[in-house]
Amino acid sequence: MRPTLIGKTAPDITVYDMNNYPMNFYKAIDTNDYTILVFWNSECSHCKQEIPELLEVWKDSLHLQYNVGVFSISTEIEKEHADEFIKEHNLAGNFTNAYDPTGRSNFRKLYDVNSTPVVIVLDKNKKIIAKKVAIKDLTYVISTYVNFEKNKAHQNSSCNLGSKIIPTMRRNPFYDSCYNCSYCYFMPFHRKLIHIQGNCKSKYRN
């Protein structure tokens, strides 16, 4: 099973901070309630647009309200390019920034990084709760998950959460799940499991 499936524990890796000291991922994010792990490249046009957007969203609604930290990893080998990008977009002092010039962390394979940016959201226990999330959806995804955790009352055989938590729950942009059931929205089901809540008979597809 792939290590970055929703509901799996994120792989621990050791990379290097921007002063070339080894930095363990788990230790670096240990005080966060939620962590946004983002992989980027200074030459990526989407990164040039979305990383500043991520910084803005993090400052505006995620950092203080939900104790969200951002662990940003440059996919580049040359530190100079990463340094310039971090300075240009004011990431130092806001995000925890790292890179892996040796490739020994194997982050590309462990986190399925074939292009950039890649955004993955983890909870306090380092469990993956969302991946490949659009920056504009981050606040929605995290706030919804926080509400789900606060109101968790789900039994193995039935789901009575539904619209009681989020009356305007929209269709999950990542999975084929029901419209108003936050349990369907976040929990990792097997491929062919059918979750039934009233008229909800949606098949989860990972």
Q: What this model shows, in words?
A:
This protein is an alpha+beta fold and 206 residues long. The protein contains six helices and nine strands, in the order ββαβαβαβαββααββ. The protein has helices at residues 25-28, 45-66, 79-88, 107-110, 138-150, 182-186, and strands at 14-17, 22-24, 34-40, 68-74, 96-99, 118-122, 128-131, 194-197, 200-203. The strands form two sheets. Strands 2-1-5-4-3-6-7 form a seven-stranded mixed β-sheet.
What is the gist of this entry?
This protein has 206 residues and is of the alpha+beta class. It has helices spanning 25-28, 45-66, 79-88, 107-110, 138-150, 182-186; strands at 14-17, 22-24, 34-40, 68-74, 96-99, 118-122, 128-131, 194-197, 200-203.
Strand-helix topology:
Blueprint: E1 14-17, E2 22-24, H1 25-28, E3 34-40, H2 45-66, E4 68-74, H3 79-88, E5 96-99, H4 107-110, E6 118-122, E7 128-131, H5 138-150, H6 182-186, E8 194-197, E9 200-203
Parallel strand pairs: 3-4, 4-5
Antiparallel strand pairs: 1-2, 1-5, 3-6, 6-7, 8-9
